[in-house]
Amino acid sequence: MVEERNINGTPEGEGVPQEKSQKRIAKYDSGAADLEKVTDYAEENEISSQDVANAIIAIGDRRNKEALEKQAQEKELMKVSIRKKMLTSS
């Protein structure tokens, strides 16, 4: 049988390796937390394809609206008749 030796009230080999394993776990948790922060930031700032599609649709809608307004304005201007007498100033 192997006899356990007590140093300062703890069995031999129990204090130091446990501290090292706790440090390793804490270091791993810290690294994992940092990685989680980075991935969360990247995911929040990532431009999704749906956002791009929505932007393209909005731009297209605005252009169509502007084209319709321009056509309506031109139609109104076509209603105005100009006589040659109006153009010459006497």
Describe the structure.
The chain has 90 residues and is mainly alpha-helical. The chain folds into two domains: 35 residues; 32 residues. It contains three helices and two strands. The protein has a two-stranded antiparallel sheet. Strand 1 and strand 2 form a beta hairpin.
Summarize this, please?
With 90 residues, this protein is mainly α. It has helices spanning 15-45, 49-79, 84-87; strands at 6-7, 10-11. The chain has two domains: 12-46; 48-79.
Whole-number tally of structural domains: 2
Low-confidence stretches: none
- Determine the mean pLDDT: 76
Radius of gyration: 39 Å
- SS field, number of helical segments: 3
Give the topology.
Layout: E1 6-7, E2 10-11, H1 15-45, H2 49-79, H3 84-87
Antiparallel strand pairs: 1-2
InterPro entries: Huntingtin-int_K (IPR052617)
Protein name: Nascent polypeptide-associated complex subunit alpha-like UBA domain-containing protein
Region (Disordered): 1-24
